[in-house]
């Protein structure tokens, strides 16, 4: 498999899923402002949507959208337990968490990184994201290791990625000690370390 990515962007969550599942994918960085891959190819010819992540499967199929990629990868290696079995409440809980991270946390950051965002809207981003952090802090208050309990899932890799953007909007995770400890715990995982090193982030 081959993953097109931008270091530290949301594509990192898909990269983490691949490494945690035991894959050693081919990876190629994309310069999003120019839409050129590291090899000089017009990225639109690979992914017409023009953004990362984009995964080329072993069958040569293009798969986009991080939440879809993460679940696809997890299902390829069920023994890695990155997703519970289908048709279970536990599976739905992970999908619930994935959707919360995607629509409430990830997208909460988006206005800050958009150069066309009105200054007043951009100024509201830290408070809006902080409220989502409050909810996550409460969820972790019972001492659980990961979002859904004792087992790491693809939702944790996604939240880890998004939490890494906090300094850009002036949020220090020290205000949310459970969330801060949670991110440090995930950062120490070998699969996460492998993804971070491959992207030149550590």
UniProtKB/TrEMBL annotation:
Alphabetical list of Pfam families matching this protein: GST_C, GST_N
Single Gene Ontology MF annotation: transferase activity
Keywords: Transferase
InterPro entries linked: Glutathione-S-Trfase_C-like, Glutathione-S-Trfase_C_sf, Glutathione_S-Trfase, Glutathione_S-Trfase_N, GST_C, Thioredoxin-like_sf
Annotated TM spans: none
Protein family (similarity comment): Belongs to the GST superfamily.
PANTHER family the UniProt entry points to: GLUTATHIONE S-TRANSFERASE GSTA (PTHR44051:SF8), GLUTATHIONE S-TRANSFERASE-RELATED (PTHR44051)
Protein name per the record: Glutathione transferase GstA
Organism: Niveispirillum cyanobacteriorum
């Amino acid at each position: 498999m081959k993953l097109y990515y931008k270091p530290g962007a949301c594509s990192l969550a898909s990269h983490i899923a691949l490494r945690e599942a035991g894959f050693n994918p081919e990876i190629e960085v994309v310069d999003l402002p120019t839409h050129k891959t590291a090899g000089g190819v017009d990225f639109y010819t690979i992914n017409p949507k023009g953004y990362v992540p984009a995964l080329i499967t072993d069958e040569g199929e293009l798969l986009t959208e991080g939440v879809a990629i993460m679940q696809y990868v997890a299902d390829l290696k069920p023994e890695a337990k990155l997703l519970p079995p289908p048709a279970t409440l536990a599976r739905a809980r992970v999908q619930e968490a994935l959707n919360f991270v995607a629509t409430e946390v990830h997208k909460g950051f988006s206005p800050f990184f958009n150069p066309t965002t009105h200054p007043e809207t951009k100024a509201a981003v830290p408070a809006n994201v902080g409220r989502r952090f409050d909810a996550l802090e409460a969820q972790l208050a019972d001492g659980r290791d990961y979002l859904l309990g004792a087992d790491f899932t693809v939702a944790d890799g996604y939240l880890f990625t998004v939490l890494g953007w906090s300094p850009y909007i002036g949020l220090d995770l020290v205000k949310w000690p459970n969330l801060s400890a949670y991110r440090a715990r995930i950062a120490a995982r070998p699969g996460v370390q492998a993804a971070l090193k491959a992207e030149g982030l550590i």
